[in-house]
């Protein structure tokens, strides 16, 4: 992982690299509200970004592809599919990389809107309702939802 990765390691003082601001401390309750941690990571990344504007936004979203590639690399390594490398990863590595994808996606969503928590919660409710209702068999027609809108900063 590199320093522009939103899942970068914390230093020994418990702060995000390059920050002594207590607002950036992960602390023991970091898992209680993931969106608070995402807001802190987003703030840290904004303060340390090399590119702003539309280019910065595109690079933040593109980071997802990099993280997904790392999941694929870990799965290939965990299954020993590369004869040259053999088994080079564990399933714990795969889980960790999947978490990096989730974190990176949450940070990217936060980049698009300060209301990321509400947007995600509403979307999750919609997907859950659509997927888990009794008539949601694989061949069933999906229910009509709200029209898609242009999403942007």
Describe the structure.
- There is one protein chain.
- This protein is mostly helical.
- It has four helices and no strands.
- The protein has helices spanning 34-47, 53-79, 91-112, 116-132.
- Helix 2 runs antiparallel to helix 3.
- The chain is flat, with a radius of gyration of 18 Å.
- The model is unreliable at 1-25 and 147-153 (pLDDT under 50).
Largest sheet: none
Range of strand content? under 5%
Shape assignment: flat
Mean pLDDT: 80
Number of helices: 4
**Residue share in helices?**
40-55%
Return the string of H and E elements. HHHH
Rg for CA atoms: 18 Å
Secondary-structure-based class equals mainly alpha
Question: Whole-Å distance between the termini?
Answer: 27 Å
The overall strand count is 0
Q: What low-confidence regions span 5 or more consecutive residues with pLDDT below 50?
A: 1-25, 147-153
């Amino acid at each position: 992982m590199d320093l522009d990765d939103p899942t970068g390691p914390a230093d020994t003082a418990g702060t995000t690299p390059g920050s002594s601001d207590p607002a950036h401390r992960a602390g023991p309750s970091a898992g209680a509200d993931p969106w608070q941690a995402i807001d802190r990571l987003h703030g840290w990344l904004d303060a340390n970004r090399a590119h702003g504007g539309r280019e910065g936004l595109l690079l933040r979203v593109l980071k997802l592809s990099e993280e997904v590639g790392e999941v694929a690399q870990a799965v290939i390594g965990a299954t020993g599919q590369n004869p040259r490398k053999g088994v080079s990863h564990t399933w714990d590595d795969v889980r960790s990389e999947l978490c990096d994808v989730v974190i990176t996606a949450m940070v990217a969503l936060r980049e698009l809107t300060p209301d990321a928590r509400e947007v995600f919660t509403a979307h999750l409710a919609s997907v859950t309702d659509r997927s888990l209702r009794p008539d949601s068999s694989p061949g069933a027609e999906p229910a009509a939802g709200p029209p898609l809108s242009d999403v942007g900063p």
